[in-house]
Amino acid sequence: MPRRVVITACSAITPIGYGKDAIIDSLRTGRSGVRPLKDDGLLTTHIHSRVFGTVDYPIDYGFARRHTKTMGPVAFYACKVAKDVLEQSGLDKDFITSGRLGVAFGSTHGSPTVQRNIYKTFFGNLAEEFSSIGAVDYLRSMVHTTAVNITRMFGITGRVIASSTACTTSSQAIGFGYEMIKYGMQDAMLCGGADEYDTTTVAVFDNLLACSVDYNDSPSRTPRPFDRDRDGLVVGEGGGAVLLEEYEAACRRGAPILAEIIGFSCNNNGGDLILPNLEGITATLRMALEDAAISPDEVDLISAHATATKMGDVIEAQAIDAIFGDRPMIMGLKSYMGHCMGTCGVIELTMLLYMMEEGFVAPTLNLDNVDPRCNMLHHVRELTETRIRTAALENFAFGGVNTCLLLNNGRYLA
Amino acid sequence: MNRDQLQKNILSILENDFEFEHPNLDDNLRDEHGFDSIDAIELLGKIELMLGFSLSRAEKEAAMSIRTINDILDYIEKIQATRVS
Lengths: 414, 85
Description:
The structure holds two protein chains of two kinds.
Chain A: E1 5-14, E2 17-18, H1 20-29, E3 34-36, E4 51-53, H2 65-68, H3 73-89, H4 93-96, E5 101-106, H5 112-124, H6 137-141, H7 145-154, E6 160-161, H8 169-182, E7 188-195, H9 199-207, E8 238-246, H10 247-252, E9 259-268, H11 278-292, E10 301-303, H12 310-324, E11 329-331, H13 334-337, H14 344-358, E12 360-361, E13 378-379, E14 384-385, E15 390-397, E16 401-409
Parallel strand pairs in A: 5-6, 5-7, 10-11, 10-15, 11-13
Antiparallel strand pairs in A: 1-2, 1-8, 1-9, 3-4, 7-8, 9-16, 12-14, 15-16
Helix pairs in contact in A: 3-7, 11-12
Chain B: H1 3-16, H2 29-33, H3 37-51, H4 57-62, H5 69-84
Helix pairs in contact in B: 1-3, 1-5
């Protein structure tokens, strides 16, 4: 018998703030976290896009060296938000280390900062006669560095899933965590993702003509999801975590239930690794509804992937229209902070949870003139005070991976 | 480098780079300071920089039996003697 799965804690470090109050304030006031691209002394001058969704405030980590020695910048984000949700949860040490709590956490490609330093040693011939590459550089940079630094810091001994599927990294982590609990493999899962400041990713998307370049002098005006004048995505950074628990156990211990995950889907387009695919995305949305056993009419709000690429937004709008029509409200949260890559799913989910709890919907920023090809949807263009019962979170990735999560507001659970 | 200079340098490295608090020369590195195999490899890199020459693989493997700060100093003195002779 499948078990119900609820979210009992969340935290996010984002370009528009860290923690619930700061994030809500930015969402309510329409504050963008997109800033000029910082000079990295390597790639910046070769990149046309000069904007980045930046975490530009100090964070007090307070981690001891015994933990930080295996952590690159990406793991700092990951461990900080993981620490937040474990503290919020009030779960005791016995449970955390029992093997019944697992971790599903990922990043796009570990720590590019550490990898870059390794390359500098090789190509710059730095101190070549000594051990210039640190003993722990692999542990700091490897693709599952976030997940296992979390297990190490908190003594977690359950399953480890280190998803790494670019923009669906953290939405997959949450979905796979949900399935772990739903089917009885684990009783709780700490899920999420992180990605650090990295110009390599900007260079990749820039090279594919997918990055925004027209607003380099006015960063807060981009990205522009669904807008007629959008010109591409803006890469961002950050980290986010959610704690998933089996519903009955969460109720027994009196945990605050932020939302119930009622459905998850994940599929692949089965072909092109870059181009958005209407058939694949439409199937993802349909499969999520089937998993949740609800009708499209029951969904109040959709957090669209909406990267602001020219074709991606149109294909997503067509898929939403095909499944949901114009009933649900549509918002594109990347308009506030750019595309935080592997962590976008969990950051957007955290913002959704805050909006569900507080009873408002943040408008898509920079949506001044809706692209006629996306105009069949119910776009949220003004701050809207409303009750959200059921919401969907859509994320799609290079490689043709698509995910959709469906949530019920914890305030109205039956 | 004589033993006093070595001791001063090693203690400085352990306190500044490895966050040792109040190290004593015969403390068990692992039990009393949480010093593990990863730290050992990192320390060897710093010892190489301090000595100005690189250690062979055999020399590095020999370091894995080190348990105390005095062991570290003995180890370095032995290597220095080998290089001088």
